[in-house]
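Email to the structure team, subject: Amino acid transporter transmembrane domain-containing protein model.

Hi all, the expression group asked for a predicted structure before they design truncation constructs. Nothing fancy, just the tokens so they can compare against earlier work. One-line instruction: predict Amino acid transporter transmembrane domain-containing protein, return tokens.
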Amino acid sequence: MGVAEGQEKAGAAAFNLAESGYGDRPDLDDDGREKRTGTLVTASAHIITAVIGSGVLSLAWAIAQLGWVIGPAVLVAFSVITWFCSSLLADCYRSPDPVHGKRNYTYGQAVRANLGVAKYRLCSLAQYINLVGVTIGYTITTAISMGAIKRSNCFHQNGHDAACLASDTTNMIIFAGIQILLSQLPNFHKIWWLSIVAAVMSLAYSTIGLGLSIAKIAGGAHAKTTLTGVTVGVDVSASEKIWRTFQSLGDIAFAYSYSNVLIEIQDTLRSSPAENEVMKKASFIGVSTTTTFYMLCGVLGYAAFGNRAPGNFLTGFGFYEPFWLVDVGNVCIVVHLVGAYQVFCQPIYQFVEGWAHSRWPDSGFLNAERVLRLPLGAGDFPVSPFRLLWRTLYVVLTAVVAMAFPFFNDFLGLIGAVSFWPLTVYFPVQMYMSQAKVRRFSPTWTWMNVLSFACLVVSLLAAAGSIQGLIKSVAHYKPFSVSS
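Reply from the structure team: attached below.
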């Protein structure tokens, strides 16, 4: 784990520079790094971009598996747990004091500072597996939405029973090409505008899906719904009901996944007012906004489609008309996920590049960088041969894996199941108890561990359901159909 040691030494050196007077420079922060300019608005935009993603598209299906009683209750429970644990995590950006302590630039560094090296390594493993999984999932989702635009036009021209097929592979190649270009942006500070655009797009396609659901209900749709969701013996078998219930938990967990980039987002905030207070407000805005949309999209989507709700209600063709509005919704998904991909892959880029620079500090290849002056007053753009090579390889590899496993619901459920407990619950809870010096077996310690254990059980069940669904999808995969 050389990167942690390198980053820690760099942070300590920067801190010493600040102590020596560099902190008085208007272009530098108290740690000697470039002045951070993030605000409540930009942090909220980053969070909404990360949270309101492709997960919203599967919520009608998830509610259909759980029913009117358990479905909304699970949504609310996940939102409350996510907000609560995010508030705990926001206090870990600085340690040991949440306001005046030393900065932790990444989630992993926060764990290392509060819980030690062993748990830092476990956290890093969980975080980067999740981040890689999310970027693969977003590649799949974008390709499906691009294909859905073509299919929507085909259905409009040739009828809803026409054999309208689209190749996910071609769309994934196009998406990868776009990401190769965007990945040359050096860091989070350079993509704030992309997050704001992506956040607007996520709200737009969620609103379109919501509006289409309302229109379908108002048009006299009488879809079959029940208090307990899909009916055993009618819609599904008993075993399938169980597996789908577990998988739906993973889908909902994925819909709330953003804790793994929370510290990195917080590191973009200016230091006054205190970063932890701003981040808590941003988390509340982000989670409450997304929960409102999630509840509306999930509940109204279930009301519109009932127990036969598609896995993705904009690409699974729960809606055919107006075809142009379905197209607009899918275009918004594509634009949003172009930005969201960058939000989730930037920490991976920083990790690998930090490790490489600490391992080979004198390498000419690693340190070479040219600044291109963009036309029309767009500013300067730094280009590094190392960034160009390694980031391109990363995008290509994620696209190849996505081509091999292009299954929307199953993949999202698995990502959500694997990441929810360790990253959203376990490490924030453990770091809070370490910082606050919570006494062992005290009421607070007991309830915190009960929460953590309950979420672990949910994650294990969700992972089992998603793996079963993935195996089933692989067995029935047809290359020239759009997975939903």
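The domain at 33-476 is CATH 1.20.1740.10 (Amino acid/polyamine transporter I). The chain has a mean pLDDT of 82. Ping us if the truncation boundaries need rechecking.
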